């Protein structure tokens, strides 16, 4: 069984029969990225980026120059000649040459293509440029420390921190043992492997973390930073934020919502045993006989975040998963039969979507069956634009979050 994350939406929409098929497609997702190729590809401008005599437009630019005296000075002089202000500069030494990464403020009328020509005339090669925003104004050491602090508080932050560390990329993690059996993935040495646009790191709990950025090669400096972040995560071990919320349902029952991980495996299995075959079938899109074999991966914070709902006696009665799926994010819910239609699923979904928003996700999708009216109603209750696609009885609902999503309450889960 393939463990890579690739083409999940296509696979799930074509043939979701049985739990094994679902997870085969989920773990086989993989996307490629193309770099911005023109000014029309750039991100929308924030108010502070609008063209003007003082503010200008923010750009992130990376170019390779010769490793010899005066090369960087020539480049800076050329930029100054076009009234381009250099806000920050990082250097990434290579075996041959040096990669210089700039944060620039340029006049609004100066387009990316013209900036590239200016840099090329000054000796820069393999230039890459994209629009920046106010978040990029933080210096590199502060940004790296912030990512380390987030990772230290929550093991689920590692994939997100890696993505913010190196920019747009695809991150896949393959476990040390194949899901549902099968051949285990090949390992990597302790020091990791850097291969141009791909770096592979040994995951803290075993397996491999693969980071790929096809449009821009990684530098040794970026590789060292990513490796240090993974090493920090490994040293800290399993951890979750400690908070939890106690809520009162409309009918008067109190529930507790908290983060969950693999330490909740046995309690999650017990909840599965209390669920009817129909409930499990709606969740896993087919006959279910061994769902607990996959719970260890669903609860693993490396692949996303899980919220658990407990009743007053401490029994888990609902689970909600936010699953990192390459460039996309999946939401999935399972609520014990006796607790359905009480608002538990809607509460879980609102919190999961709030977490996706906080993580910078532009959309989330849910894969279910057209007959699952509860999931459809919960998605509609979010109050955001929805896309529906149905194939062979499988319904994929995509919620677009790249809009004003303030209607979604309780964005921060415990």
In short:
30% of the residues lie in helices and 26% in strands. The protein has 414 residues and is an alpha+beta fold. Strand 15 and strand 16 form a beta hairpin.
Which keywords apply here?
414 residues; alpha+beta; Alpha-Beta Plaits; Aminopeptidase; 3 domains; 5-stranded antiparallel sheet; 4-stranded antiparallel sheet; 12 helices; elongated; disordered N terminus; disordered C terminus
Report what the structure shows.
Helix content is 30%, strand content 26%. The chain is of the alpha+beta class. The model is unreliable at 1-54 and 403-413 (pLDDT under 50).
Low-confidence stretches: 1-54, 403-413
Total beta-strand segments:
16
Kindly give the count of domains: 3
Major sheet attributes = 5 strands, antiparallel
- N-to-C SSE string, H for helix and E for strand: HHEHEEHEHHEEEEHEEHHHEEEHEHEE
CATH class wording of the largest domain: Alpha Beta
Overall pLDDT level: 78
């Amino acid at each position: 069984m393939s463990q890579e994350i690739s083409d999940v939406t296509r696979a799930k929409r074509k043939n979701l029969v049985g739990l094994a098929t679902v997870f085969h497609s989920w773990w086989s997702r993989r996307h490629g990225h193309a770099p911005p190729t023109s000014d029309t590809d750039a991100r929308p401008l924030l108010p502070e980026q609008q063209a003007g005599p003082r503010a200008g437009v923010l750009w992130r630019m990376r170019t390779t120059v010769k490793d010899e005296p005066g090369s960087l000075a020539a480049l800076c002089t050329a930029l100054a000649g076009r009234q381009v202000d250099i806000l920050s500069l990082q250097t990434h030494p290579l075996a041959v040459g040096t990669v210089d990464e700039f944060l620039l403020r340029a006049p609004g009328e100066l387009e990316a293509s013209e900036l590239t020509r200016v840099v090329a005339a000054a000796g820069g090669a393999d230039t890459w440029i994209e629009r920046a925003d106010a978040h990029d104004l933080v210096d590199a050491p502060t940004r790296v420390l912030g990512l380390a602090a987030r990772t230290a508080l929550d093991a689920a932050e590692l994939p997100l921190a890696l993505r913010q560390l190196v920019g747009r990329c695809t991150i896949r993690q393959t476990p040390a043992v194949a899901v549902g059996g099968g051949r285990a993935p090949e390992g990597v040495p302790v020091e990791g492997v850097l291969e141009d646009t791909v770096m592979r790191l040994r995951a803290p709990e075993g397996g491999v973390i693969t980071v790929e950025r096809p449009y821009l090669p990684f530098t040794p400096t970026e590789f060292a930073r990513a490796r240090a972040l993974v090493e920090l995560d490994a040293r800290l071990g399993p951890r979750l934020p400690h908070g939890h919320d106690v809520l009162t349902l409309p009918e008067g029952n109190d529930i507790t919502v908290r983060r969950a991980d693999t330490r909740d495996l046995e309690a999650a299995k017990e909840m599965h045993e209390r669920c009817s075959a129909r409930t499990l079938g709606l969740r896993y899109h087919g006959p279910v006989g061994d769902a607990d074999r996959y719970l260890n991966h669903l609860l693993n914070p490396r692949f996303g975040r899980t919220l658990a709902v407990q009743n007053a006696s401490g029994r888990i009665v609902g689970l909600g998963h936010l699953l990192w799926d390459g460039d996309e994010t999946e939401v999935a819910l399972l609520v014990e039969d006796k607790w359905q239609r009480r608002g538990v699923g809607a509460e879980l979904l609102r919190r999961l979507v709030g977490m996706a928003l906080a993580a910078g996700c532009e959309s989330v999708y849910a894969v279910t069956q057209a007959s699952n009216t509860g999931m459809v109603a919960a998605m509609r209750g979010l109050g955001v634009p929805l896309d529906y696609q149905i194939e062979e009885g499988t319904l994929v609902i995509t919620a677009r979050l790249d809009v004003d999503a303030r209607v979604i309450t309780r964005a921060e889960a415990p």
